[in-house]
Design a protein that fits this description.
The complex is a heterodimer of chains A (277) and B (235).
Chain A (H helix, E strand, L loop, with lengths): L2 H15 L11 E6 L1 H5 L2 H13 L2 E6 L2 H9 L5 E4 L2 H9 L3 E16 L13 H11 L3 E3 L5 H12 L4 H4 L4 E3 L4 H11 L2 E5 H6 L7 E4 L6 E9 L9 H12 L1 H9 L1 E2 L2 E2 L2 E2 L6
Parallel strand pairs in A: 1-2, 1-3, 5-6, 5-7
Antiparallel strand pairs in A: 3-9, 4-7, 4-8, 4-9, 4-12, 10-11
Chain B lengths: L3 H14 L2 H34 L5 H11 L4 H12 L14 H38 L3 H11 L1 H17 L2 H7 L9 H10 L3 H34 L1
The chains are: A alpha/beta (277), B mainly alpha (235).
Chain lengths: 277, 235
């Protein structure tokens, strides 16, 4: 290897280092801490370009579980929080980390199962009865187990049904500690029941012989909301851009964009901002 | 689930389609990983050479420590870098979090111990051959390190490739500090993780095949460079 070859290697290194600096140098952008369901369902890919075209503000989304999204935002790592776990959101605002919480849209949770349906819950409208049947049959149930909005909602439902899943953890109750998609993959792999938001389910590509077995109980309601991270507590927040996004998503235009998003002809999210007139 | 033929077909289709989004992801993967490997070599080569060529107090502990760091879990490194670069962390003012810069920092931390530990072994073996010569010629420590690194350059290229392999394949660190943000910090491994979580298993595997192909091209390039260098050395 002579100097020429060394120069070749150095050039390769220089090419690799240089352009990295470019993409995040100037342009106006905001960072949204959000959940996997909004991202994996394709909603953001559908509505964010509309906002960016109108305002020139690029929206960067970090999609993690609601618990992690809230913790990241509470560290000041984000301008807007867009999640679905009301008690945790209200605490976020009460702690001074968020300015104000606004309802944006809702969809619902469903329980999906393999065609065999070992606990025989298909068609049930009462989610508590369905969970009792699953627990009674000790049929495998895959839980997120990751402190996400879906996980919190699922634990609330078990609690309402009077079933102590902690005792069954590792047996028929299996906590994957992963996102919705990874948990669905695991459930399909082991033939387990699983509770998912409908949006992720409809857009999911690895359904196997699974189908929705329990739906329609009002307890399965799933509300999403948006909160501007408090710039007084977190000075790094892009308050102007973040507020513009909050205003837009609550406006008729933003709400219409959410309603217009469909997968296989099915509407996945239903806008319900209070300001919608 | 389709067979491997279909997955290979989709992978080839992905490459041939010339999708600008995929090109962007591949480019960012290479930029992040190659930058991290270069920085890790800048840190790890001298460190490893010093540990390989000299005796000093605490050397054994230092070497054991370096070797142990090769097993650093990427998620732990990701969390550590996140806490450092977070807006409420000590280095928050740098505003590096959720940028490729943060991903380079995390991967450099992952790769530098590998480069240092393997360099130490290579240089130590070579030094045992050279030690008497160095002593008789009265060569100083800086020149010794330079001579050892230069003469071991072919082995060290393989060391760098081992570091590249670790960096290009890891997802745990970059997904935490980069955030897998579309058009900003999405790389091959985080894209594969995302498609897996969407249940698009065939697309995820096809992306994996593309990643493997990229690693192959990089290794082939280095191999060819090395062969041509060896030829010119004998000419």
């Amino acid at each position: 290897m002579n100097r020429r070859h060394l120069i070749g290697l150095a050039a390769l290194a220089a090419i690799s280092l240089f352009p990295v600096v470019r993409p995040f140098a100037a342009d106006d952008h905001i960072l949204v801490q959000s959940t996997t369901s909004t991202q994996n369902s394709g909603l953001f890919d559908s509505i964010l370009p509309v906002f960016t075209e109108k305002t020139g503000i690029e929206v960067r989304v970090v999609a993690v579980g609601t618990g992690q999204a809230i913790r990241n935002a509470a560290n000041g790592d984000g301008d807007v929080l867009f999640v679905h776990a009301r008690p945790a959101e209200e605490k976020f605002v009460a702690d001074g980390d968020g300015v104000e919480r606004f309802d944006v849209m809702y969809n619902d949770f469903v329980i999906v199962a393999p065609a065999a349906d070992p606990a025989g819950v298909a068609g049930m409208k009462d989610v508590a009865a369905a969970l009792e049947a699953i627990a009674g049959a000790e049929a495998p149930f895959a839980s997120r187990g990751d402190d996400s909005g879906t996980h919190k909602a699922e634990l609330r439902l078990w609690n309402d049904a009077g079933i102590d899943v902690a005792a069954a953890s590792g047996g028929w109750y299996r906590e994957t500690g992963s996102g919705m998609g990874a948990t669905l993959n695991a459930a399909v792999g082991m033939g387990a029941y699983v509770m998912t938001d409908r949006a992720t389910w409809v857009a999911f590509g690895n359904k196997g012989d699974y189908d929705v077995v329990v739906e329609g109980d009002p307890k399965l309601f799933n509300q999403y909301s948006i909160i501007l991270v408090n710039p007084e507590k977190h000075p790094g927040v892009n308050a102007e851009g973040g507020q513009a996004f909050v205003d837009w998503i609550l406006s008729n235009e933003g709400q219409d964009a959410i309603a217009a998003y469909r997968v296989d002809g099915q509407q996945l999210f239903f806008p319900n901002a209070a300001s919608r007139g | 689930m389709q067979g491997f033929g279909a997955i290979l077909g989709e992978a080839v289709g992905l490459i041939l389609a010339g999708d600008p989004d995929l090109a962007e992801i591949i480019l960012l993967s290479l930029q992040v990983t190659l930058s991290a490997v270069v920085l890790a070599c800048v840190i790890g080569l001298p460190l490893g050479a010093v540990a390989g060529a000299f005796r000093f107090p605490g050397r054994s502990i230092f070497i054991i420590f370096l070797n142990a760091l090769m097993g650093l879990p990427p998620v732990v490194v990701g969390l550590f870098v996140y806490l450092m670069l977070s807006a409420s962390g000590p280095l928050g003012a740098l505003e590096l979090l959720y940028t490729p810069g943060a991903m380079i920092v995390a991967q450099t931390i992952l790769v530098a111990p590998i480069v240092a530990a393997l360099t130490r072994q290579v240089v130590e073996d070579l030094h045992s051959e050279y030690a008497e010569q160095f002593a008789s010629l009265g060569i100083g420590p800086v020149d010794r390190v330079a001579a050892l690194l230069w003469d071991a350059r072919y082995s060290l290229l393989t060391v760098a490739l081992a570091g590249f392999g670790r960096a290009v394949a890891e997802v745990g660190a970059v997904i935490i500090v980069g955030g897998n943000i579309n058009h900003a910090t999405r790389v091959m491994t985080t894209a594969i993780a995302l498609e897996t979580s969407k249940g698009n298993l065939q697309l995820a595997l096809a992306l994996g095949v593309v990643l493997l192909a990229i690693a192959f091209v990089i290794n082939a390039t280095v191999f060819a460079l090395r062969a041509s260098a060896a030829r010119s050395a004998f000419a």
